[in-house]
Amino acid sequence: MLSYVDRSRTALMLAALNGHTEMFRYLLERGHDDHHISQDYEKHTVLIIAAEHNRQEVGAIFVLYARRFPQCMDMADDTLKTPLMYAAQHGCDGIVEFLLDNGQSPDKTDQDGSTALHYASAYGHIKTVRLLIIRDCRYTIRNKFCWSANDWAYSLLVQAELESTLWMRMHAYIQ
């Protein structure tokens, strides 16, 4: 396991990681990231770090940072995973909804061709799967291994929910 020093994380990133909202606000007020967006050695931004942690205070940090630095909402790490993909992987539905509301594409792919729907499905986040489908993601996308989100599903239950939600969307039961 790598230490914080090895990951080259800034004080702002550590405050986000640990949910220290007051320290986070203080650092932002003092101009942290005004001249250069913080990234660790894997090109993780504050938004990616916040999206990986499904806690209420981290959600507040995510929104605060995204509003101040909207260009970060689309910044990918060195594997081309975006904050939306991380939020979907970790079942952070509030963050997923915020990103979709702010124009982020659910169909963007990482270096393996996987989308946010692939990650939500693979990690068993049924609410996130529903949200992405309802918000018109392209559910037929296959990654470079030729797997769809349905193929990557965590369980038969997730597969069934994905297929049910798709059927309802296709038959206009979901607006």
UniProtKB/TrEMBL annotation:
Family matches, as Gene3D superfamilies: Ankyrin repeat-containing domain (1.25.40.20)
UniProt keywords, alphabetically: ANK repeat, Repeat
InterPro entries named in the record: Ankyrin_rpt, Ankyrin_rpt-contain_sf, Multifunctional_ANK_Repeat
Ranges occupied by ANK repeats: 7-39, 79-111, 112-144
Taxonomic source organism: Thamnocephalis sphaerospora
UniProt protein name: Ankyrin repeat-containing domain protein
Taxonomic lineage: Eukaryota, Fungi, Fungi incertae sedis, Zoopagomycota, Zoopagomycotina
UniProt cross-references to Pfam families, sorted A to Z: Ank_2 (PF12796)
Keyword Hydrolase applies: no
Family matches, as SUPFAM superfamilies: Ankyrin repeat (SSF48403)
